[in-house]
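Lecture 7 notes: from sequence to structure.

We start with a single chain of 357 residues. Read the sequence below before looking at the structure.
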Amino acid sequence: MCAKTQPRRRGLRIAAWSLVTVLVMATGLVGVVLWQNSYDMDERRVTIRHDGHTLNGVLALPRDGGKRHGLVVYVHGDGPADATHDDGYKPLWEANAKAGYASLSWDKPGVAGAPGNWLDQSMEDRADEVTAAIAWARARPDIDGDRIGLWGASQAGWVLPKVAARTPVSFVIAVSPAINWLRQGRYNLLAELRADNASAARVKTEVARSDAIRRLLGRRATFEEYVRAMDGDTYGVTADRWGFISRNHTADATRDLRALRGVPVLLTLAGHDINVDTADTERGYREVLEAGGALTVKSYPDAAHSLVKQSVERSDLKITATALLSPRSLFADGFLGDQRQFLEELGRVGRDRGHGS
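Now the structure, written as tokens:
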């Protein structure tokens, strides 16, 4: 009887130790996730009044003991983004904080309980919204109103210069912006078809459909007309989305960029961008802004459109694991450091000017 009990007890001990090991590993993993997703800054929920409604925002402040800080105001790209962009902004905010800058962002209308619908907005509406947020920030005692600038990604490229034409900004960080809406759309279509190894016949069909949509937009067709023209297949476009595209498809940043002349601009471009023609963007920015000497261009060969490493972005498993275990390494090598350095150099220039006056 003892001979039978001993193996059973040994098996129970092995199972118990295995369970303990799993629990310790799980606890350690949770600890790593919590540690990696803790950032050296103080986040505060804020509300901003604009055009009769409320913007629900987050203000991230440095923990450097300073009474007043410069501010980076975040302007989202396309899509239903919340204030933190699902926490994707936080590594950037931390880099800003290390440079002595606060960060401000807010939920798009209709996102995370915010009133309104972001698809009802034009680029002008978005610029008005950002301008109101800057005015709110300038009234705060913890923000230096002379050191407020903009950070904007992708679609924000059509918003940033409009804001600069409305209110003074001390810098702009433009991440993967496009110049012309229709050119960008055609580039994106062809790039995605190439990535899919599409046949010549499919390319011809898709381009023809794109041309038909352009003609519909050109004559301000209704959503119902669009549906009829597509033989009842909306291709994922809703009535709200059609209204948004119709409202904004003529966007072109070329003329608006002149408002950024003399403003320090950091243009960041990805080496694997299938959304935006980076060569077209760089050419457009250089033609308008380079003569003033305030344009800095940084390219990241290993980055996708979002400036996340392409090798990470193409894998759902990798992007989830990296976001949990090492969120700062999501981004292309040098991306966070370059933005921090850009802000630090602005601070040094400001201090030098102050000593010289």
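The chain has three domains: 1-36, 43-180+251-356, 186-243. Keep this in mind for problem set 3.
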